[in-house]
Amino acid sequence: MRWWHALILRSSDDSNYPTQQGYAVVYVWSDWQRFEIMARYLDLPVIIGLLKKVEEEFGKAQPSSGLSLPCEPLFFWWVLQLLDQDESILRPWT
Length: 94
Known about the structure:
InterPro entries: SAUR_fam (IPR003676). Pfam families: Auxin_inducible (PF02519). By secondary structure, this protein is an alpha+beta fold. It is built from 3 helices and 3 strands; from the N terminus they run αββαβα. The longest helix is centred in the middle third of the chain and has 14 residues, at 45-58. The two termini are 23 Å apart.
């Protein structure tokens, strides 16, 4: 199990902001904007790359109580729009 799975489970238990089943909560740096993303997106290279950047900088301790990604909210929103249109765009070739 990847280290960030525990953070996802912990953040999805927050009763103030319930998360849909099959989704994960991530916080995007700069203004800690909250996004709910499909859990399967966590296996995409673009997301894994952001998570590795966090791990390099902070180790396995995240700077917030949930899963945090080091990018601008507008960039992350753009990535999610691409994924909604065609998830295969950001999947590695098999």
